[in-house]
Specification:
The chain has about 140 residues and is mainly α. The mean pLDDT is about 90.
Amino acid sequence: MSIGIKGPLSVRRALGVLLAFGAINAFAGGYYGLSGAKGVPLEWLDGSPFASYFIPSLILLIVVGGSFVTAAVAVFACLRCARPAALAAAVIVTGWLATQVAIIGYVSWMQPTTAVAAFAIFVLAWMLPSPRRTSALPG
């Protein structure tokens, strides 16, 4: 009985690297926001449910960063949950980005770059074998 699934090695490597980079970026952004987000105008939050960057930064750190690191580990370890975990991470970061743009608008080159990365993660994750279609391989 196999606990993992294999996909094309180049797809796994590219997907794992994108997910790991996304995790690092989300953790760094979350930490920066929790540290006070120096240089980021509080006026951007006018009209939003947030008085500071604390809650959004916590969400970025835990939810977005956590989904990325979980998916990266699953992809690099060839776990059966790699595909759904990576797809979930792509959906989560897309939701984060859409919410961010709805609240503060377009303010950084990182927003479209993140959207492109989320799309690439989705495409690469889709290329992994589905756990339902994979039978247990000997050894």
